[in-house]
Amino acid sequence: MQAYDALHTLNHWLNQQIVGQEHLVQRMLIALLADGHLLVEGAPGLAKTKAIKTLSEAVEGNFHRIQFTPDLLPSDVTGTDIYRPEQNRFEFQPGPIFHNLVLSDEINRAPAKVQSALLEAMAERQVSVGSTTYPLPALFMVMATQNPIEQEGTYPLPEAQLDRFLMQVLVDYPNVEAERRILKLARAEAAHAETPAPAEVSQEALFEARQAVLAIHMAEPVEEYIIQLINASRRPEEYDEELAQWLEYGASPRATIALDRCARAHAWLEGRDYVSPDDVRGIAHDVLRHRLILSFEAEATGVSRERAIDRLLDVVPVA
């Protein structure tokens, strides 16, 4: 219960600091509990950078921000061997990826070789330089951001690399009431009247919480529901004719694992010791959004991935 209380307090404090982005805050905590990475897409100024930076202030560990640009090199992310003449040998200089929380800002602005270097580190939890492999920290989460407005000078992530992200979260503008609270918070910060951070959540507490999430009960019908959702994305003709016209490629086994872990984390954050179908449906869009490939016919008729996932949830019955 200590781990749950710590995460519950953290969630409350984050929502005080990141006003109007409750969905993003919850997804960050789910990614932290499910030991995965986030891809966040939204217009500039929607607190994407502030969210991960604020999270790092209340979690034991270090934080680093990498600004992705077209001239970035893989070694700028992973690190490289540096020659030390006084010692007559090469010494590995770790890159910014060797931090607990890493913000990859505007990941689609870097060329493919830099993106692949980052995504390899995310998937393998290690970096290889020369003949030596260096493990990354046990607590390691990457939050990558994309700006959907600007497309000039960008390098879209291939579907195979998008699959490495646990979830893709879309961030929208806050409502009017949240906008008022943002103004008050900005004035308070300018006057140095910030809300003090809660007690730092230790890595030990986070790992304890992860074990509690994995131990949550998932009934066999709920597990079957997850499997049928993924199967329907791959073989939509067996479930619905319209869905079969929309989907070109379905989700990989990574999506099955992600749905399982995220649904468990969602239930745990809600204070329950079991997973319900509503937990699966609640995180389905963020888990599947970047993993489904629409057909040419769907794109030509304006069918979005959101609509395709809605249809998927409609045609697959809860066991």
Give helix % range: 40-55%
CATH architecture of the largest domain: 3-Layer(aba) Sandwich
Q: How much of the residues is beta strand, in percent?
A: 15-25%
Shape: globular
Regions with pLDDT < 50 over 5+ consecutive residues?
none
What is the residue-mean pLDDT, rounded to a whole number? 91
Q: Could you describe the largest sheet, including whether it forms a barrel?
A: 5 strands, parallel
Count of discrete alpha- or pi-helical segments spanning 4 or more residues: 14
For the secondary structure, the number of strands is 13
N-to-C order of helices and strands: HHEHEHEEEHEEEHEHHEHHEHEHEHH
Instruction: List the quaternary state of the chains.
Output: single chain
The assigned structural class equals alpha/beta
CATH class of the largest domain: Alpha Beta
In short:
This protein is an alpha/beta fold and 319 residues long. The protein has 2 domains: 2-190, Rossmann fold, CATH 3.40.50; 217-315, Orthogonal Bundle (Helicase, Ruva Protein, domain 3), CATH 1.10.8.
